[in-house]
Structures are given as structure tokens and as C-alpha cells.
Amino acid sequence: MEEIKNVKGTHDVFGDENNAYEKVESLMKSIAEIYAYKGVRPPVLEYNSVFVRGVGESSDVVRKEMYTFADKGGRDLTLRPEFTAGIMRLAIQNKLYATNELPLKLYYLGPVFRYERPQLGRYRQFNQFGVESIGHNSPMNDVEVIVLAYTILSSLGLENVKIKINTLGDEASRNAYRTALKEYFAKYIGNMCVDCKSRFELNPLRILDCKVPEDRPVIDGAPKIGAYLSKESKERFDAVLEALESLQIPYEIDQGLVRGLDYYSETVFEFHYKSAKGNDYGAIGAGGHYGSLMKELGGPDLPGVGFSFGIERVVSVLSDNNLLNDIAYELDAYIMPLDKSLDLYAQEVAVILRNSGGYKVDVCFDNVKLGNMFKRATNKNAKYAIIIGEDEAKAESVVLKDLASQEQITVKIEDLVDKLDELYETSYPEEEDK
Ligand code: HAM
Fold first, then answer.
1. Which atom of ligand 1 is the closest one to the Cα of 286?
2. Which of 265, 172, 268, 254 is nearest to 220 (CA)?
3. Which of 109, 115, 183, 326 has its CA 20 to 30 A from that of 347?
4. CATH architecture of structural domain 331-431
5. Contact 149, 287 (CB under 8 A)
6. DSSP calls for 369-402
7. CATH 3.30.930.10 residue ranges in the chain?
8. CA distance linking residue 52 with residue 37, whole number of Å
């Protein structure tokens, strides 16, 4: 029989890698909470139109990368290729903008799907964590989301993250810039790649994103957005940069940064990090301001700003840089009944330790030899072994052995949680809050 494998571009996460995902994701969520963002869970499936209208018809994501299909009822559905458009749909449909003070501050985490060519750091199903701050136009909201993203990365141990930042200006600025680009590229477009040819028609700004090496010299010589910015857009961008400077968030202006999704206006940014192993996974996170996405999707005329991290890329960078040291699976205690007849007693001890003590424990129900059980305890990184023989069961007690010091004592079952608390306090003071 042919071996059943995972779908191309997807990946399984298990073992220590799963612990790394948990650690990274819970840190991201807890920092977003500190910044007063609230969690939301939009569905993975949306009507196709959410992304066609939201992300935009000139983006590669909509043109080439969406998992779109008709369901059995003939509905045109898409597995979300990103969160932002779906979050806007959620906010509009549930009128969150009307029932909450603005900005509405939301965070999210989950899988997204893009039909891209799989390569280093590029999957067809991957996970994003992100935030959106919706409905308030101050440049301070742009600053807040950048500081939040930067704080998350430095809390994970990633120092010297490169923040590339640019402005795409307001609509008037972008229209003026598009006209200038069209005029410039008209002379060269005949010799550029097929994608650039269609970008030239749909949205010449997109050409700046082209990765084909032969096209780069022409693109590098193109006019820069700076010269086409309206006074308001320039002032807005300056306010963002000034705030980043005074908050000591390092950045680098990159006038070629246009982002791959159509909804952006004003501030856009990306987070880049070359890992210690020299691997470049592409941007580990990115985002920006969007002036009219909500309106495009049939909602009120409210702006927003946000970013998303690619969890796979963040975990890869952390792993390359040996920043995932404390993720190994650990047990507080491994319970070892010495005979099958003692299994139920062992189960009761486990329930007491888990439910009353909050300790992470496992039980060996295999009735293998004691030496083998100790080996298993070591493999599971258990701190304590709890050994139960017939005598202990009769006396309603257990033998508690510290696997580091090899010291052991007999403890009455009703004193077990207190005793373990006490031992933890002296041996593992940093884990005292157990
Ligand atoms: P994006 O730049 O398309 O932006 O994706 C954000 C992040 O997702 C990227 O920086 C990268 O880390 C990760 N990513 C993208 N494609 C892949 C892939 N094929 N495999 C692995 N990771 C990938 C957005 O999605 C916007 N919604 C961000 C945003 C939020 N803008 C405003 N609010």
C-alpha cells in the first residue's frame, strides 16, 4: 500500500518543537494582553470575497495563492490566507466598532493557508500570531503595534531585530506615485518578467516587490515614494519615526518596502532577523496601516493598523540561536506502583497530586521492573519518583525520592502535597509558585 504522507507544504509539530510553539505563542499572547489587546477567533473559512475585496486583486496572495473551492452548497469559500481581512469582517458583522471604545484592539493566533512554493521558512499551512488596532487614526497606534512586536521579539531573546519601515502615504500620495512609476516603467516593461507586466497594469507599486534578479537594476532606479508624499502623510510618518526614536526602537527606512497585500496605506514595516546559523527565513513578521480596508468590506470608514508574525519563522530563528533551552518536557513526579494490584492506589495518588497540588505527574501502569521504571522517570525528566509497594499502600503512604540527590523519605498520603511543596521550596526556589 502506498505510504500516506502529509500534504506538500504542511508540517507536523510534536515533541520539543511543540513545546517551543507553546512557549512562543503564550508569550506573544501574554504581552498582547499587557498592551490591552483582547483575543478573537475568526473562522478559518470565509467567503472568497472577504479576501478578494480585502487583500486585493493585484496581490500575489489573491491572484495565485488562495485555497479557494466551492463547498457542497456551491458557496465560494477560501481557507484564510491571512487574518486581517477576516478580522475586519468579524468587527463589521458584530458591530464591534460601535459597542467598544476605539481603537478596538484585538489579537489572534491560528493557521493560515497559502499555495506558495515550499522552501526554507515558507509553508502552505503555517501559523500567524497578530494584532489589529482598529478605528483610531493617531500615528501613536502605529507606534504602539511596532513597540509591541519589538517587545515580543526581545522578550524571546532576539536582540538586534532589524525593523524596516516605510510609508506608502495617503491615497493622493499613492496615486501621484503610481503615475510616476507607470511613466518610469513604461520604458522598460517590455523586457521585464511576466509578473511585472501584469503588476504594471494592475498596480505598478507591486513591481517594487519583484524578486527576479534581472529586473532589479531597473527597479532600483525607479522613483522613490518620498518625493510624492502629501504634507499630511509626511508629517504622519515623521511623527512615527520621532516616537520610535524616543522609545529607542531601532529602525531602518526602506523606500522599496511596499508589502504584498493591497490594503496598506501610510506606515508599513517588516521585522527581519538573520539567525546565528546564517539562515534568512525572510520577514519573521510584518504589518502596517490600512486606511480603507473596513470601508472596502462594507463597514464604516475607519482606519486600522496591525502586524502578524509567522510562528514557524520565529521558532526557526530561536532554534538556530539556541534560545529554546528551557522547553524540554519535564515532570514533577513519576509514580511507580510495584504491582498491578497497586495501580488503583497509584491512580488515586496521581489525582491528589494533580488536582490538589497542581503538580505535573505521570504514572507507570506497565508493571515493569523497578530499574526500568527509574529509566523511564529519567527519560521524562522527572524531578521526583514516587514508589508504591504493598507496605506503603497498607500504611496509606508512599516513598518519595528526589532523583537529583537520590534521597528518599516515606510520606503519609495526606501530607504528600505539603511535603512536595516544602521540598520544591528548598530545592527549586525559582519554581516556588507551583
Ligand atoms: P504577511 O507579510 O503576508 O502579512 O505575513 C506576515 C508574516 O507571516 C510574514 O512576515 C511571515 O513571517 C509569515 N509568512 C508569510 N507567508 C508565509 C509562508 N508561506 N510560510 C511561513 N510563514 C509565512 C500579513 O499576513 C498581514 N495580515 C499582516 C498585517 C496585520 N498587516 C496588518 N495587520
1. 10
2. 254
3. 326
4. 3-Layer(aba) Sandwich (3.40)
5. yes
6. -HHHHHHHHHHTTEEEEEEE-HHHHHTTEEEEEE
7. 15-170+230-320
8. 27
Angle at 200 between CA 197 and CA 206, to 5 degrees: 105
Q: In the chain, which segments carry CATH 3.40.50.800?
A: 331-431
Residue 283 CB less than 6 A away from ligand 1: yes
Question: Ligand 1 centroid vs 62 CA: distance in angstroms?
Answer: 14
Is any ligand 1 atom within 6 A of the Cβ of residue 139? no
Nearest atom in ligand 1 to the alpha carbon of residue 124 is 19
The rounded distance, in Å, linking the Cα atoms of 285 and 266 is: 18
Residue with CA nearest ligand 1 atom 16: 122
Cα angle for residues 214, 217, 221 (degrees, 5° grid): 150
Q: What is the pLDDT, as a whole number, of residue 431?
A: 66
Residue nearest to atom 8 of ligand 1 (CA): 310
DSSP state, residue 134: E
- The residue among 268, 270, 263, 255 whose CA lies nearest residue 180 is 255
Q: What is the C-alpha separation between 365 and 346, in angstroms, rounded? A: 9
Segments of the chain scoring below 50 in pLDDT: 433-434
Residue whose CB lies within 8 A of the most ligand 1 atoms, among 28, 51, 166, 313, for a mutation test: 313
Tens digit of each residue's pLDDT (9 = 90 or more) over 378-425:
999 999 999 999 999 999 999 999 999 999 999 999 999 999 999 999
Nearest to 281 by CA among 251, 254, 315, 325: 315
Q: What is the spatial distance between Cα 37 and Cα 148, in angstroms, rounded to a whole number?
A: 10
- CB of 79 closer than 8 Å to CB of 67: yes
The whole-number pLDDT of residue 343 equals 97
Give the nearest ligand 1 atom to 114 CA.
19
User: How many Cα atoms within 13 Å fall on the side-chain side of residue 300?
Assistant: 15
Q: What is the CATH number of domain 15-170+230-320?
A: 3.30.930.10
